[in-house]
């Protein structure tokens, strides 16, 4: 009997459209989908997975691997606004998991993040730490991980999702690109961060409308400095970005 396919983790900068991608994975119906398990563990000191309460990254990774071996492949999406030091010291993250990455042009992602949390620290915008996770995976596996871009996802959803599925060993299901708008119960605590996805019915850029007033790196010196700081980390990741055909 062949070994079960490895769990998949999508590591993403905040506001990169990663929740929309997770919604596609939910719609498939053949995966155990986990929404930001390591972030919730970091915030709360605990996380519930398959009826089990875990209190450390070691226990959480144990539970993910066990759940994956139970017959349904695990897909987890998480963000790089927290540090996962002990996780990056666990060799199973590199040998037992398929790590993938999601970026978005920093000026747009940072403006969107600031609109949600104007008190965010420099680190919480996440590009530097996402790059650190990427480099840890590359150093420990000897392979360049897959990187997708949130803007590509909405510009060419079918091609981007198809290529991602091919890379991680999933069947591509075009019907998963559409869904009925709904609010997922496990998003309740952070519902305002996911309001657009909850109201959506598929992968698409926001429709044209009167632009909302939003501070950007062009209008806000604080955001300009943040964008300039994180740009090199984005550029380094973008050099490996998937270009779908």
TrEMBL record:
Gene3D superfamilies: P-loop containing nucleotide triphosphate hydrolases. Residues 200-221 are annotated as: Disordered. Residues 209-221 have a biased composition (Basic and acidic residues). Pfam families: Sulfotransfer_5. InterPro entries: P-loop_NTPase, Pyrrolopyrazine_biosynth_F. Signal peptide: none annotated. It comes from the Bacteria. This is Sulfotransferase family protein. It comes from Actinomadura namibiensis.
């Amino acid at each position: 009997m062949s070994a079960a396919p490895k769990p998949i983790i999508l590591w993403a900068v905040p506001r990169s459209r990663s929740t929309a991608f997770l919604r596609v994975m939910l719609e498939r119906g053949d995966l155990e989908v986990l929404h930001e398990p390591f972030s919730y563990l970091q915030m709360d000191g605990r996380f519930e997975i398959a009826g089990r309460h875990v209190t450390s990254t070691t226990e959480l990774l144990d539970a993910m691997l066990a759940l994956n071996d139970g017959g349904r492949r695990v897909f987890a999406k998480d963000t790089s606004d927290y540090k996962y030091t002990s996780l990056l010291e666990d060799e199973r993250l590199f040998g037992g998991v398929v790590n993938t990455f999601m970026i978005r042009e920093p000026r747009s992602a940072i403006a969107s993040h600031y609109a949600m949390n104007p008190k965010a620290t420099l680190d919480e915008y996440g590009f530097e730490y996402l790059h650190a996770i990427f480099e840890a995976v590359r150093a420990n596996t000897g392979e360049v991980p897959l990187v997708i871009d949130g803007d590509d996802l909405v510009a060419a959803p079918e091609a981007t999702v198809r290529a991602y599925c091919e890379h991680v060993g999933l069947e591509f299901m075009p019907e998963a690109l559409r869904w009925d708008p709904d609010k997922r119960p496990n998003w309740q605590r952070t519902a305002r961060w996911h309001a657009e996805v909850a109201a959506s019915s598929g992968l698409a850029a926001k429709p044209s409308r009167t632009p909302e007033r939003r501070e950007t790196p062009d209008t806000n010196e604080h955001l300009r400095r943040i964008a300039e700081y994180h740009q090199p980390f984005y550029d380094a990741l973008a050099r490996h970005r998937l270009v779908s055909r």
